[in-house]
From TrEMBL:
Xref: PROSITE patterns: PROTEIN_KINASE_DOM, SAM_DOMAIN
UniProt xrefs under InterPro entries: Kinase-like_dom_sf, Prot_kinase_dom, SAM, SAM/pointed_sf
Matches recorded under Gene3D superfamilies: Transcription Factor, Ets-1 (1.10.150.50), Transferase(Phosphotransferase) domain 1 (1.10.510.10)
UniProt domain SAM: residue ranges: 19-85
Molecular function terms, GO-annotated: ATP binding; protein kinase activity
Name listed for the protein in its UniProt record: SAM domain-containing protein
Residues annotated as domain Protein kinase: 383-626
């Protein structure tokens, strides 16, 4: 680890608590601009975010704790020559802990700022302002979209467009209705298409498939055709170092009082490969830069400024959507669609016509949205638009507070009900096993489920279901193990085993029974366990694991992407869980044919579950502040 740290030491949490807002702002905007220097220090020694905040400058140099090298060294020393198998198991256990710590360290930069500010809204605004500032100082998109330039900028001021995958943003369909309406209309083969679109759709197909000497010639002809339906402007902004004004290939606008809102952008290339950059990246940069201008400040401070981006490259078209959260998020709404079709094939021609009909309806939605804006700055712009669920007496509204995960692809929020101020968890997910959650909830083995979407509502959110449950004030078993906070008196294993027994009785497999998905609830005497994250849960030997499994983790034998779910896989995790918790109990483990059973255990032996008596009387129901 480097010892030539020349920066001022990071403050402790106690020091920050005494700061006023001005000093806090100054620290975040200036002193943290070189935070990557601190992150470099962490590459060799992985630390917990809270621990890191407490370190002085000298500690950073000489006493950085929780390093994986030290943990591995300790584990190796414990390995006995006459017990190699046990040593390997312990080493694997240690590597799992290290994996958890590495996951924590990858988020250290966000945690430092969030811990210092103690409010995620302030964190969002800080990154939002950073994005705007960088945009105003940036080179034109025609330069910054070059692969080498863009890849460098993604490290410091990312656009969340999936390049690379760790720069993937949350689903834009949960931030504005226009995006899922576009998707629904485009995919509807029975969509009514207005006659005026049919009048010129063959013209745009011919222009798209023709060869053109220059990009400007191609885009000029495309704009002429689209202008029959929409008003398209060439709006210049800023001035680059060569004195040439910047503009994309076309802008669709509407008015909000006297201010201009951008509902769509066109960016194109004469052919695929021409221009030296990806037009979708250049279009994303234009979206960011147009909306970052001072003239757009009033609108961008009161909403997530949704826009569509139309990409043209020769005869290939693609439609993307964009929102401006703490960072710009851009996602494709269509595949790259070829206009090289047979004009006698009505099915192919109608599909192209549906693109423009769906866009027309989406533009109407955005015009209605922008013209109805109350031009008052709002922090709500950082959160999904869904802030009320249910109907009739069961309806309730809520206010988002902060993210619960530092992972933009997994949208899980802490929120507060407006009617009773109870804390809740709001989750958006493609798949969720409500039946399994309810089975566990009945025995207090899962937080209380308050609301879940039906299939129709999921369609209106671009395929995402809303899952709302009570917030439980606790941390995961993984975090408890890292902090060595497991009590001698605990019901953790019994609770988890009983929950799995209930699921297996219904022919269900939990599947992802790793320690991050087990909550530990502290009571005055015992520690209880709850299961969370029923996304993977499914029917034994029928449903399958997702394709996106992290194959670097030590999954059960046979648990691979898209493999069938098996009850034995849950038993594998239960066996590992019992071994993890043995050192915290006073019982003596007994070896039974490849499986440990403590004298206090009731039901895990030789790969089978035995009926248990349920949760102990000392368990507590989940709920706000539990």
């Amino acid at each position: 680890m480097s010892s030539n740290v020349s920066c001022n030491p990071l403050p402790t949490v106690k020091e920050v608590e005494g700061w006023d807002i001005e000093k806090l702002n100054r620290f975040l905007k200036k002193e943290l601009q070189d935070i990557d220097k601190y992150i470099d220090i962490l590459k060799d020694e992985i630390v917990d975010g809270d621990v890191f905040l407490e370190l002085s400058r000298d500690d950073l140099i000489t006493k950085l704790p929780l390093g994986p090298a030290k943990k591995i060294e300790r584990l190796i020393k414990e390995i006995r020559g006459d017990n190699q198998e046990k040593g390997i198991e312990e080493l694997n256990e240690g590597l799992e802990v290290i994996q958890l710590q590495m996951d924590e360290s990858r988020k250290i930069k966000r945690r430092i700022v969030k811990s210092v500010t103690s409010h995620s809204i302030f964190f969002f605004i800080t990154e939002f302002d950073d994005t705007v500032k960088n945009s105003l100082e940036a080179e034109p998109p025609s330069i910054n979209a070059k692969p080498r330039n863009f890849s460098v900028d993604q490290n410091n001021h990312p656009i969340l467009n999936g390049r690379p995958l760790n720069c993937t943003g949350p689903p834009i369909t949960i931030y504005n209705k226009a995006f899922y309406q576009f998707l629904e209309n485009f995919e509807n083969v029975d969509l009514d298409i207005s006659p005026d679109i049919f009048e010129w759709v063959t013209d745009i197909i011919r222009v798209a498939t023709d060869f053109h000497d220059e990009k400007d010639e191609r885009l000029h002809k495309i704009r002429d055709i689209l202008s029959k339906k929409w008003t398209i402007e060439l709006i210049e902004y800023g001035t680059n170092k060569r004195g040439k004004d910047r503009n994309c290939d076309g802008v669709f606008t509407t008015k909000v009082n006297k201010y201009t809102a951008y509902i769509g952008f066109i960016e194109g290339k004469n052919e695929i490969g021409s221009g030296g950059c990806d037009p979708s990246i250049q279009g994303a940069l234009y979206y960011r830069d147009y909306w970052s201008q001072n003239s757009a400040q009033l609108i961008r401070n009161c909403c997530c400024i949704p826009s569509f981006i139309i990409i043209v490259a020769g005869p290939w078209f693609c439609v993307l959507g964009a929102v401006f959260l703490n960072r710009v998020v851009v996602q494709p709404l269509t595949d790259i669609i070829p206009f090289t079709v047979n004009l006698r094939n009505d099915k192919q021609v109608k599909r192209i016509a549906r693109i423009f009909q769906a866009l027309d309806l989406a533009f109407e939605d955005l015009i209605f949205y922008y013209q109805g804006l109350d031009l008052v700055p709002s922090d709500r712009r950082f959160f999904p638009y869904v802030q009320q669920v249910g109907s009739g007496d069961n309806a309730f509204s809520f206010t988002y507070i902060n993210e619960l995960l530092d992972d933009c692809t997994r949208t899980i929020w802490k929120a507060k009900r407006d009617d009773n101020n109870n804390l809740i968890v709001v989750k958006f997910t493609h798949k969720y096993n409500v039946k399994a959650h309810l089975i566990c909830e009945k025995k207090n083995y899962a937080p209380k489920l308050l609301y879940y979407s039906d299939d129709e509502e999921a369609k209106r959110l671009g395929g995402y279901k809303i899952i709302i449950m009570e917030y439980v004030d606790c941390i995961s078993l993984g975090q408890k193990l890292m902090r060595d906070e497991i009590k001698t008196k605990n019901n953790i294993y019994d609770n988890v085993r009983n929950a799995i027994k209930l699921l297996h009785d219904e022919n269900l497999v939990f599947a992802d029974l790793r320690v991050p998905n087990i909550l530990v609830v502290d009571t005055s005497e015992f520690q209880q366990a709850m299961l969370v994250d029923f996304d993977w849960c499914g029917i034994h030997n029928v449903d399958r694991y997702p394709a996106s499994m992290n194959e670097e983790l030590p999954w059960p034998p046979g648990a691979i992407p898209c493999a069938l779910l098996q009850k034995d896989h849950d038993l594998y995790w239960l066996d590992k869980l019992e071994k993890k918790l043995l050192k915290y109990t006073k019982t003596i483990p007994t070896l039974v044919k490849g499986s440990y059973i403590s004298q206090s255990s009731k039901g895990f032996a030789s790969g089978s579950l035995i009926k248990s008596s349920g949760i102990s009387q000392s368990s507590t129901a989940s709920g706000s502040g539990s």
